[in-house]
Automatic annotation (TrEMBL), chain A:
Enzyme Commission number, as recorded: 6.3.5.3
Phylogenetic classification of the source organism: Bacteria, Deltaproteobacteria, SAR324 cluster
Primary residence: cytoplasm
Gene this protein is translated from: purS
Signal peptide, first to last residue: none
Entry's Gene Ontology molecular function annotations: ATP binding; phosphoribosylformylglycinamidine synthase activity
Protein name, entry field: Phosphoribosylformylglycinamidine synthase subunit PurS
UniProt feature coiled coil, ranges: none
Keywords from the UniProt entry: ATP-binding, Cytoplasm, Ligase, Nucleotide-binding, Purine biosynthesis
């Protein structure tokens, strides 16, 4: 079994208002030098296969069809031993 | 004109929309559960607002892959009128029936207000009862209505006349690009909009400026 991890982030050209608000709060806490805070989402799942290539292909389809919105988001795939 | 109001888990403007149509002369209406796949008997498909599937993943993302939306896509191709309001607009965008994306409001707040909305296209089955440039007073109630698209898409929308409604430049509550808050597809038989015309059909509701939208659809159906 493999564990698939998809990390979805807003594309660099899309303004992340949530990230900006969190950046402001971090600065307020004293982390003044912090820059370009961006917020994403991580989705984990177990895939009943040992075939890394097949798993990657499947995760990529999931990312394109549902888990990320290609208009505003990019996603990255990681595969680990479950 | 026979209308379907689609109902998903988490829809909450379905009754408002149903009643708005029910009180119109020349229109009949039925609810359709999201697992339904037969929409042949309807002339118009209405997708109401709400928080389908709790807005999980992204607003509209999970509803956009439900069985009824596959049928809505075919209906759109065949030229049937499809109107998505608020969460219905988000669903149409997630389903790929309209271009762009709807991001969280620029101020990160849920906005519930009655605001001025300008008619930017009166040559469509949804807006023909209005004059170009009319400023309507319509309710809005959303947290992700901040319309976004890239420059190339924006140019295309402008050239094709696909922008149906926009906020006036001096009063853009959610940060949408070019104030866009109502969008047609290229064929102009699909409209998505953030403001709620179904909550603006009687003067005692505060405004009846949304009525023109329903009247336009009836006019289109009779013609």
């Amino acid at each position: 079994m493999l564990k698939g991890v998809i990390t979805v982030m807003l594309q660099p050209n899309v303004l992340d208002v949530q990230g900006q608000a969190v950046e402001g709060a971090l600065k307020h806490l004293g982390f003044e030098s912090v820059e370009q805070v961006r917020i994403g989402r991580q989705i984990e799942m177990i895939l009943p296969t040992e075939d890394h290539e097949a798993a990657r292909l499947q995760l990529s389809e999931m990312g394109k069809k549902l888990l990320a919105n290609p208009v505003i988001e990019d996603f990255q795939i990681d595969i680990k031993e479950a | 004109m026979h209308c379907a109001v689609l109902v998903f888990p988490g829809s909450n403007c379905d009754v408002d929309l149903y009643k708005a149509v029910l009180h119109l002369k020349g229109a009949t209406v039925e609810y359709v559960w999201h697992k339904g796949t037969d929409l042949d008997r309807f002339d118009v498909i209405l997708i109401p607002g709400g928080f389908t599937y709790g807005d999980y993943l992204r607003p509209g993302a999970l509803a956009a892959v439900s069985p009824v939306i596959a049928t809505v896509k075919k209906a759109a191709e065949s030229g049937k009128l499809i109107l998505g309001i608020c969460n219905g607009f988000q669903i149409l965008i997630e389903a790929g029936l309209l271009p762009g994306a709807l991001l969280p409001n620029q101020n990160l707040q849920f906005i519930c207000d009655v605001v001025p909305v300008k008619v930017a296209q009166s040559d469509s089955p949804f807006t023909s009862s209005y004059q170009l440039g009319d400023v309507l007073r319509l309710p809005i109630a959303h947290s992700s209505g901040n319309y976004y698209c890239d420059e190339v898409t924006l140019k295309k929308l402008e050239v094709n006349g696909q922008i149906a409604f926009c906020f006036p430049a001096e009063n853009n509550p959610n940060g949408s690009i070019a104030g866009i808050t109502g969008l047609l597809n290229e064929q102009r038989n699909v409209l998505g909009m953030m403001p709620h015309p179904e909550r603006a059909v009687k003067q005692w509701l505060g405004t009846s400026d949304g009525l023109g939208l329903f009247k336009s659809m009836i006019k289109h159906h009779i013609a």
